[in-house]
Amino acid sequence: MAHGDFSQTTDGGGAERASHTHEDGGAPGPALRRERRQALSSVITGGVLLVAGLVLLLVITPQNAAVERDFAAARPCAARSDSSECLRTVPAAVRHVTKVVSRSTRYSLTLAPAGGAEWHVKMAGIGGLAAQVSVGDEVRATLWRGEVRFVSFGELRQDTTDNPKGAHRPWEAVGLGTTLLSLGFLWGAYWLWRRASDSPAGSPWQIAVPMGGTLVLAGVGGLASLLAPSAWGAVVVVAVAAVPVAVVCAVLIRVKRRQTTDTIEVAARVPEGERCFAGSLRGGVPYEVPGYDYLVVGPGRFATTADPTGVFACREVPGTLVPVRVRPFYRTDPWPGLSHEFVVVECRDGETPVLVAVGRRNADVVLGALESAHSAHLARGADAADGPVPGALGDRCVVQRGR
Predict the structure, then answer these.
(1) Whole-angstrom distance, CA of residue 45 vs CA of residue 38
(2) How far apart are CA 328 and CA 139, in angstroms?
(3) What is the pTM of this model?
(4) CA dihedral 183, 185, 187, 193 (to 10 degrees)
(5) Strand pairing class (275-282; 352-359)
(6) Rounded to whole angstroms, how far apart are CA atoms 231 and 179?
(7) For residue 349, what are the β-bridge partners?
(8) 198 falls in which pLDDT band (50, 70, 90)?
(9) String of DSSP letters for 100-123
(10) CA distance 23 to 16
(11) CB-based burial of residue 368 (10 Å sphere; 0-12 exposed, 13-18 middle, 19+ buried)?
């Protein structure tokens, strides 16, 4: 698609569509190639997330749950038993207490059993027993499978980070959330590969709405995995949450399909003084210069420059450039990877379509500058010169700094 070509068709729902082929006959254009790359990136991301989520759910989580069940079933060791499968309680002296303060206070203990090597254990939770003991105190360390699982001191008891109780829940939460999130990426890949011509928007609602739904369900699934009594309980919570999420998505899709235009309503405002900010002009016109990624606007004046201060090397834009409308960024626009904070001002210079990319907050002064420059051009007459020579390089731009 040519830079700035505004020719579009409309699908059954009123959404604007843009051509993805060259005019000479059906060969894939740059826009289609970009979409295929984006689709490939999305399918890779979605595939990795799906595989990782399934591994976490079907392998890592069951392994941790099995260890948790074994620990819950373990009983205190019998006298003179050497088994590591029972709970062995050993007296130990506190040799060192380490306090780590960040967002919360965590503790580590160095314990020395009689006649054995020291144990360095990290305590779970905040404070608790670890905050009460001092160097020299004698505590009771309970071991299972060779690791200290909890520590007792008087009536107090505190788990260590090696205690397997509930250890499967974080893995289950991440696995379920990741699996649900992968569905959004895979849908995006499918849409970009097969349905991209339905909308040229940089952030099409056909992807954004389903992705938003999967994000919500991923969050619900992760939270449910941490709080629900079982994995099936988390699945039930997700299934119940899917109903209102689907309803909201269906309403949003219905609203979007009924929209007949993606024009952004912006009230033109003539800048009081000259300003310079990020922006770019494309359209195959004589005053288009690659690398001139800043705009200079003022009352009756519109120019591009490569100077971020807007002081030197301006290229004046003639008053024949007329703004048509403001719209969101399209994937087919000649700025790959343009931030979605930018909008595009569609213009025409005679019969030549021209595009101006500018930050959303500066779109009003761009419209005002273009309209005032065009009005000044008409007032001078079509044959009159437009102030500084259009396309002239090296003009000094006296700019009042804008916000």
Answers:
(1) 10
(2) 66
(3) 0.68
(4) -150
(5) antiparallel
(6) 14
(7) 321, 352
(8) low
(9) EESSSEEEEEEEEETTS--EEEEB
(10) 19
(11) buried
